[in-house]
Amino acid sequence: MEHEAYFYRTLWAVIIEGKDGGQTMNFFNDEDEARAEAEMMADISRENNIEGQRVLLSPLDYSPRKNRIMSDNIITEDTELIYGEESE
Prior knowledge:
Layout: E1 9-17, E2 23-28, H1 31-47, E3 54-63, E4 68-69, E5 80-83
Antiparallel strand pairs: 1-2, 1-3, 3-4, 3-5
């Protein structure tokens, strides 16, 4: 029997983190779509001079068979900061 990790797919999360620590997320199957959404959200933040907000793009392991995200954390070392400052 093959290990289930062999069947994982990459799901892309666009994460918007507010200065109060709150987060909203949208998920995409396609990296280009996710990146376009992240860039659009970053542009909106820049145009409105929103400080303390971060826009992140994060790849996640997803199991279609279980219909769930298998990654332990949403924000990892593979997460890309699209807008905002690095967290401490």
